[in-house]
Amino acid sequence: MADKPAIVLVHGFWGGAAHWANVIVELRKRGYGKLYAVENPLTSLTDDAERTRKMVKQVDGPVVLVGHSYGGAVITEAGDLPNVTALVYIAAFAPDAGESPGQISQENPPAAFENIAPDSDGYLWIKQDKFHESFAQDLTEDEAFVMAVTQKAPLASTFGDTVTSPAWRAKPCWYQVSTEDRMIHPDNERRMAQRMNPRKVVELDASHASLASRPAEVCDLIDLAARETAG
Q1: What is the CATH number of the domain that holds 216?
Q2: Within-domain flag for 1
Q3: Alpha carbons 57 and 69: distance in angstroms, whole number
Q4: 30 CB-side CA count, 13 A
Q5: Which pLDDT does position 231 carry in this prediction?
Q6: Is residue 43 part of a domain?
Q7: For 157, which DSSP code?
Q8: 6-30 tens-digit pLDDT
Q9: Distance between CA atoms of 102 and 104, rounded to whole angstroms?
Q10: Which residues form the AB hydrolase-1 domain (predicted)?
């Protein structure tokens, strides 16, 4: 529908744009015709924010910017563009100025922290045999196995990249907490959500992969953000 904003979806570590597959299908059913999913290089926060900005700038009209996991740090850094009307965080990092995802994680380590391992080239992976229990325990074994095999590893240095000027301080925002998250501690999610003073916080009994396991509820929050910021 012409009156609906564009939705730009930003993935996190250990996955690509296809992690949004179930959300994309659900949003289309709800009448959202302008849907975009960024494919970030996961080489640095600067690189990923710039890639996201380029996509947002290609959109004519208002944009609801949605980030999952590390994608929350990306939209925090890139969400200051004038046509971004709302920020939606899905089990995501929302760093303040000078904060990094790694710093936030070290302060309150998640349950699956030990299942992340570096390779000899400086990339961080979730151990394939631990992926299901770490990232997506509420998906089927087959679904999680595909995610494990196709995971996109970030450069380890990206964990330490800090946000400069957080967009959530200036833009309306919404946040979804995954209460069974083993990749970002749920209490970290609650703390980050609380300090950004969001319009709404939703808690789902879900894994880190809530975008795949609970797409209807995730889309409810995206749809709410779109409606509440409509022209």
Answers
A1: 3.40.50.1820
A2: no
A3: 22
A4: 24
A5: 73
A6: yes
A7: G
A8: 999 999 999 999 999 999 999 999 9
A9: 5
A10: 7-220
User: How confident is the prediction for the chain on average, in pLDDT?
Assistant: 97
Nearest of 77, 73, 78 to residue 57 by alpha carbon: 78
Spatial separation of the C-alpha atoms in residues 177 and 190, rounded to whole Å: 7
Residue 166 domain boundaries: 6-228
Retrieve residue 230's tokens: 């409509």
Q: What angle do CA 200, 202, 206 make, to 5 degrees?
A: 160
Asked if residue 212 is part of any domain, the answer here is yes
CA atoms of 187 and 63, how far apart (whole Å): 29
User: pLDDT tens digits, residue range 95-138?
Assistant: 999 999 999 999 999 999 999 999 999 999 999 999 999 999 99
Q: Note whether residue 76 is domain-resident.
A: yes
Contact 9, 39 (CB under 8 A): no
What's the sign of the alpha-carbon dihedral 172, 94, 9, 138? negative
Query: Above 90 in pLDDT, residue 228?
Result: yes
Q: Binning pLDDT at 50, 70 and 90, where does residue 226 land?
A: very high
Answer whether 71's CB lies under 8 Å from 211's CB.
Answer: no
The tally of domains found in the chain comes to 1
Q: Exposure of 97 by Cβ count < 10 A (0-12 exposed, 13-18 middle, 19+ buried)? A: exposed
